[in-house]
TrEMBL record:
Tagged with keyword Signal: yes
One annotated Gene Ontology cellular component of this protein: apoplast
Protein's recorded name: Germin-like protein
Keywords in alphabetical order: Apoplast, Disulfide bond, Manganese, Metal-binding, Secreted, Signal
Major subcellular site: secreted
Disulfide bonds: C31-C46
A matching Pfam family: Cupin_1
Segment forming the signal sequence: 1-21
Family recorded in the similarity comment: Belongs to the germin family.
């Protein structure tokens, strides 16, 4: 009976860990990142807690508009652990998103985070696509004050279909969510993936692949 209980506990524990979508629970009040440390851990080494200051938990600048003068008309201003060392081990971060009229945050995924977004100005058409085999597009038009969640790992995007600028703020469930922008990853890798491979994979003429590779 004891053995059975033990087995059940073990299975329950394994299940708990396997479905956990958040980063590991901190083992101390905080662990302000020390970017100068030579030691590498899963996250960043902690600064001496006695030397910690308020500025280690602080970032200023999300009131500033991002520069959207680029091909996609979009700019993200991240507040990840690289910008705010106090986020280290806390499993959370933030980003400001600016969109020119028709500007788009192109299809991308965050390998380590779910994202919850709210519109501060303007409106946004947002969406994500579920995994195979359904590949269902879940999409909605958001106005100021609306909130939308993009589940971890799924490909998603936002576009400003309005004639004025749009602004959103999003929170992410990782200190370092990672961004994989599909076009840049596929057509802009370094070194390039063979154009013949991409032509076959995407069922495109090789000349189109070469054109796309020149863009990204
Ligand atoms: C915005 O970015 C563009 C393109 O990089 C640059 O030419 C322009 O000077 C920038 N504008 C501001 C206000 O920084």
């Amino acid at each position: 009976m004891a053995a059975k209980n033990f087995l059940f506990s073990f299975v329950a524990l394994a299940f708990l860990f396997s479905v956990s979508a958040s980063e590991p629970k901190p083992l101390q009040d905080f662990c302000v990142a020390d970017p100068t440390a030579a030691v590498k851990v899963n996250g960043l080494v902690c600064k001496d807690p006695k030397l910690v200051q308020a500025n280690d938990f602080f970032f200023s600048g999300l009131h500033l508009e991002g520069n959207t003068s680029n091909a996609v008309g979009f700019k993200a201003t991240p507040v990840f652990v690289a910008q705010l060392p106090g986020l280290n081990t806390l499993g959370i971060s933030m980003v400001r998103l600016d969109y020119a009229p028709m500007g788009i945050n192109p299809p991308h995924t965050h390998p380590r985070a779910t994202e919850i977004l709210t519109v501060l100005e303007g409106s946004l058409m947002v969406g994500f696509v579920t995994s195979a085999p359904e590949n269902q597009l879940i999409t909605k038009v958001l106005k100021k004050g609306d909130v939308f969640v993009f589940p971890i790992g799924l490909v998603h995007f936002q576009q400003n279909l309005g004639s004025r600028k749009a602004v959103a703020i999003a929170a992410l469930s990782s200190q370092n969510p990672g961004v994989i922008t599909l076009a840049n990853t596929v057509f802009g890798s370094n070194p390039r993936i063979s154009p013949d491979s991409l032509a076959k994979a995407f069922q495109l003429d090789k000349s189109i692949v070469i054109m796309l590779q020149a863009k990204f």
